[in-house]
Amino acid sequence: MADYDYDVLVIGAGPGGYVAAIRAAQLGLKTACAESRETLGGTCLNVGCIPSKAMLHASEYFDAAANGAMAKMGIKVTPELDLDTMHGQRRDAVKGLTGGIEFLFKKNKVTWLKGLATFEDAHTVSVGGQKATAKNIVIATGSSVTPLPGVTVDQKVVVDSTGALELPKVPEHMVVIGGGVIGLELGSVWRRLGARVTCVEFLDQILPGMDGEVRKEANKIFKKQGIEFKLGTKVTGVAVNGDQATLTLEPAKGGAAETLEADCVLVSIGRRPNTDGLGLDKIGLQVNQRGQIETDHDFRTKVDGVWAVGDVIPGPMLAHKAEDEGIAVAENIAGLTGIVNHDVIPSVVYTWPEIAGVGLTEEDAKAKYGEVKVGKFPMLANSRAKTNHEPDGFVKIVADARSDRVLGVWAIASVAGTMIAQAAQAMEFGATSEDIAYTCHAHPTHSEAIKEAAMAVTGKPIHI
Ligand code: FAD
Ligand code: NAI
């Protein structure tokens, strides 16, 4: 048998890669992880989930003070923005958490190979000029921003999500290209801090992939908050002149062009898998039409000994999906049974209110199962949300008409991201709407809206 330097070598230390490396080491495998960034944690910890939530959290406080929400509760304040301090706490959060992964690597004896990894063959990579061999190699190289043809990101006037997290001043007019998760989260941050924000979305509705009613309601709420929308519209060009940009827009279905002036343009039209420079040709591995590496249910690629997880493989580009795949791939490599149920991956948009969902949309459930039953409960009728002055949103449960099994749960609520965990767990256990309706929920909590939506599936909620 060949002698390898490592049992497992993971390429990329994002949520997919660092979790795979730690779990592999916990299972007694000699493990290394190659990462080209100066800090561990990947997109999520460095320029994604964590810094965006730091800015969302801080700007939410600012907004609550500025928009009168605090005054309504008897707290009169006139907020003054100290953007440098706000950025400082964002950087501190990133530093603390990325340093935490370095600590966990040391604790679990995972070797960090610093540099860009390239395949030499299916069991050898070169990292920073050094060769390392491993019996198993896990590709967890993640994703990066999809460019918009003809538009150059200069990180000054035209920014991507990384630039939008670090703006040195509040823009006067920010135009967000793409009404997806990044556009709405980062658009919300700068709107709350005082920018005028216009969101240009190619499709007729924002938040593709979410339940139709949720998309419509979210659009209404964001409009009420002051975000302007140009739906069914595409950006065909961005001309930068000094510190100003002129965008050319056209109706998606064709028609007369118009222009829009902005001092900040955020390009957020999606992300694409990172495979360039990996040397996949050296191991005979091809990507699919979307640039993703295909795997089987165990996260094996077509090449023996090479596995892949996270944003670089098909499925939603989410940190928790990557993490669960990281655990599963390590367990599979160790000869255990690692499984991820891709039908039950929650997704959350961390705006105000939060928007969350798990499972099928009503539209997809109908297409797949024919007849479905739907129960809805408005947050306005939830005692805690009402008391907290958080009237917007609802919970919606989609269940199979015959078996009553829950197929999807959708929520717009201040704490929807936390609420959705119980829905995911219920679905993981194959719950019916009746199971949820007869589970005792603490009062007064926002989660009672999930119970009442489940009761509404059979037409019998109490509080509406
Ligand atoms: P990544 O985190 O992208 O990590 C891959 C790592 O591999 C990178 O550090 C990269 O430097 C390294 N790498 C790549 N190629 C090589 C190579 N050849 N050699 C060595 N190293 C290499 N998801 C959520 O679930 N919740 C959120 O709130 C959320 N917010 C986000 C906000 C923003 C602004 C963005 C951009 C993304 C957000 N995401 C969020 C998505 C989330 O960040 C990704 O789904 C997640 O990071 C994917 O993990 P990964 O391990 O597959 O890849
Ligand atoms: P996205 O896929 O969520 O949204 C992109 C939007 O841009 C779509 O609505 C699309 O129709 C639109 N679009 C595409 N081309 C366009 C054009 N030329 N003109 C106008 N609109 C156009 O992508 P986004 O927001 O960039 O996020 C990338 C990924 O990052 C997401 O898929 C998500 O998985 C992940 N992410 C997750 C977060 C979370 O979980 N809270 C937060 C931020 C990112």
UniProtKB/TrEMBL annotation:
The keyword Disulfide bond applies. Residues 345-454 form the Pyridine nucleotide-disulphide oxidoreductase dimerisation domain. NAD(+) binds at G178, G179, G180, V181, I182, G183, L184, E185, E201, G270. One of its GO terms (molecular function) is flavin adenine dinucleotide binding. PROSITE patterns: PYRIDINE_REDOX_1. InterPro entries: Class-I_Pyr_Nuc-Dis_Oxidored, FAD/NAD-bd_sf, FAD/NAD-binding_dom, FAD/NAD-linked_Rdtase_dimer_sf, Lipoamide_DH, Pyr_nuc-diS_OxRdtase, Pyr_nucl-diS_OxRdtase_dimer, Pyr_OxRdtase_I_AS. Belongs to the class-I pyridine nucleotide-disulfide oxidoreductase family. NCBIfam families: lipoamide_DH. This is Dihydrolipoyl dehydrogenase. It comes from Sphingomonas rhizophila.
